[in-house]
Design goal:
With about 150 residues, the protein is of the alpha+beta class. The protein is built from 4 helices and 5 strands. A hairpin with an 8-residue loop joins β1 and β2.
Length: about 150
């Protein structure tokens, strides 16, 4: 008598898609087998001379080049009017409303925090004074003042 758990199920061999190992077809020959020592790309190397030339390499950007960003930023912490919660204020960026939204989103992703744009400032949740200068510097801010 079959158990209830085995009803409607075949054996493991019947459920696999591969044929049994003993009945596998043999490989065509030693010259096409990569294990025999022959280079499988030898014929492709012979075709290299018939290929058209590729695009010319472009000049690589300088490693010390920084992305263009605001000249300065002032970073401070506030608690007043927020129920005792700390927020980090990024001020004096001199960016437009659309750019501030983009910068706020990127800072939130980089720092792993919440935040919003309030007027001409970016408000980030938590005390991020120690972490934010490096992120702003990577985004091209020339001078970051932490107060």
């Amino acid at each position: 008598m079959r158990r209830a758990a085995d009803r409607g199920r075949g054996t493991l061999a019947a459920m696999t898609k591969d044929p049994p190992r003993g009945n596998r077809p043999s490989t065509p020959g030693p010259s096409s087998s990569p294990r025999s020592g022959a280079n499988p790309f030898a014929r492709l190397e012979a075709l290299r001379s018939s290929l058209p030339p590729g695009p010319s390499p472009t000049a690589a950007p300088r490693a010390d080049a920084r992305p263009a960003g605001p000249a300065r930023a002032v970073v401070r912490i506030e608690r007043k009017g927020r129920g005792g919660k700390e927020v980090t204020i990024v001020d004096k960026l001199g960016l437009g409303a659309a750019e501030l939204e983009t910068w706020c989103r990127d800072l939130k992703h980089a720092l792993g925090c919440g935040g919003s744009v309030d007027g001409e400032t970016i408000v980030l949740q938590g005390d991020l004074r120690s972490r934010i200068p490096a992120v702003l510097g990577a985004r091209g801010v020339a001078k970051v003042t932490v107060g």
